[in-house]
Amino acid sequence: MNAPISSPGPADPQAIADHYQQAAQALLLAYQRNKAATRHHSDGALRAALHHAQQSCAHVAQAQQHMDQALRLSQQLSSQRADHPPSVAIPQRGRSH
């Protein structure tokens, strides 16, 4: 759960989308753990509440890593596209040959 997140190779839109999806999944798990911690706390089960709260924090940290990676890859992709503009000619409207 706390393993470093890495994406070797060039930035591609699918890798970025995968990081966003994994971050969303980790945030969902964090939310669910937080709900369990709240429920245990209100029932007086403080050790169980602490356990779920710690797991919620770990999921949030994992989501943060995925978001950081998605941001880094997005910036890298943006830089690649700025350095290499498309070589395809864009047709102009209204002009006939």
Average pLDDT rating: 86
Helix and strand composition category = mainly alpha
Total of DSSP H or I helical runs spanning 4+ residues: 2
Order of helices and strands: HH
- What is the CA-based Rg, rounded? 21 Å
Instruction: Tell me about the largest β-sheet.
Output: none
Q: Give the helix level as a range of percent.
A: over 70%
- What is the rounded distance between the termini? 61 Å
Tell me the β content: under 5%
Low-confidence stretches: none
How would you explain this protein's 3D organization?
With 97 residues, this protein is mostly helical. The protein has a domain at 14-80. Helices cover 71% and strands 0% of the residues. The protein has helices at residues 13-43, 46-83. The longest helix has 38 residues, at 46-83. The radius of gyration is 21 Å and the shape is elongated. The mean pLDDT is 86.
